[in-house]
Amino acid sequence: MKTALTIGVASLAMLTGCAETSSETDEEAEGSQAPPATEWYVQAQETLIGPMTEDRLRREAAKGRFRKDEQVWSSDRDSWSNISDAIPGIELGGTEEAGTAWATIFRKADRVPEPMIPGNRRSNELTQSEIERYLSKGRGLLDGMRGLAGQYGPEPVLDPRKPIARYARGRALARMLRHDIRQAVKKGDRERALQDIAAMCALSRQLSVTRGWPENQADSYPADDHYEMSNLVSISVIRLLPGIILDPAHAQWSQEFKDTATSNLQWVDADLRASFAPNFNADRSPEQQAGLELTLELMGS
Question: What is the pTM of this model?
Answer without folding.
Answer: 0.86
